[in-house]
Amino acid sequence: MTTYDDRASLTDLTATVERVRSSVEEVIEGKPEVVRLSLTVLLAEGHLLIEDVPGVGKTMLAKALARSIDCSVRRIQFTPDLLPSDITGVSIWDQQRRDFEFKPGAIFAQIVIGDEINRASPKTQSALLESMEERQVTIDGTTYELPSPFMVVATQNPVEMEGTYPLPEAQRDRFMARVSIGYPSAEAELQMLDIHGGASPLDDLQPVAHAHEIVKLIDAVRNVHVADPVRRYAVDLVAATRTHPDLRLGASPRATLHLLRAAKASAALSGREYALPDDIQALAVAVLAHRLLPTAQAQLNRRTAEQVVLEILQRTPVPAAPQSPSGLGMGRGSSAFGQQPPRRL
Q: For residue 221, what are the CA distances in angstroms to 16, 117, 196, 265?
């Protein structure tokens, strides 16, 4: 049940996220929807995959998000010769102590930037699997907890680019969302020349939020209410990917969980204590598409996973708004989805 104190806390902490958003947008011009999705993934305790062609600001976005929060940050430059131990750490024999000493790898940070993740071998990429899912690392039979908050922000070029390896499916499934920045508009590119022409704006970027504030905000997001029809809507969307004729691999149950968590974070960013079907719809492509594998025939017909998700959104009925449950602080007879009915795409 959401209390008055919970609602006040959510309102106060939303202001913290607004400061982070404004800070990141000082560096990434003209891409508010990309910045919002990045913050949504952060608040939903997920990991973000930024996939696009070189030079559009993938690493810049990851760095801007990391520098806007006062927390530990490590960057991993993925290369073909990178070893799994470079990421997770290694136990080294200490001659003086006559015992093994664990040297933590680059994964032991609150925000980990994995630059060009698909330039490393699949074996090295797989070193992230345990840390991304369980927020821990096991070395030589000993388990080490990772700090909180913990988020991996990885960048990659499309698979067809020179010198890259496709991410393993298990790895892609652990990323809550995938985003493409795209080319800026002419106006945004002109503004970029003014801002980035002399020096990098990252040099002047200062933290505007502390890690403990983000942890509190994550706790507030967990209390966002999701009505049963909205949960069923998320399940129906994901289930439809498993039977679609254009897909040979649908979304996993983990995708359903990620979609629900992201919807709760999106509602909190909008200042709401309850999730709407609109939240599910707005995030479906970003959360589901990168997990899907089209059939060979669909690829020949140039059908993309994004198109399939949009088609599923069109065909799946949007739930009717139920009556408000107790404890949400809304008036009698008002909808648990809010006053406005959810829109159809």
A: 13, 29, 35, 6
Specify which residues 51 forms β-bridges with: 156
Cis peptide, bond prior to residue 317, ω within 30 of zero? no
Name the segment(s) of the chain with CATH classification 1.10.8.80.
224-321
Q: Topology of 1-223 in CATH? A: Rossmann fold (3.40.50)
pTM: 0.86
Exposure of 98 by Cβ count < 10 A (0-12 exposed, 13-18 middle, 19+ buried)?
Answer: exposed
Give residue-wise pLDDT tens across range 146-200.
999 999 999 998 766 667 788 888 899 999 999 999 888 888 888 878 777 677 7
DSSP lists the bridge partners of residue 154 as: 49, 114
Q: What is the mean pLDDT of residues 241-247?
A: 95
- Residue 328 pLDDT greater than 70, yes or no: no
With cut-offs at 50, 70 and 90, classify the pLDDT of residue 53: confident
What CATH number should be reported for the domain whose range is 224-321?
A: 1.10.8.80
pLDDT of residue 157: 84
Q: Measuring CA to CA, how many Å separate 175 from each of 17, 129, 260, 273?
A: 21, 10, 14, 25
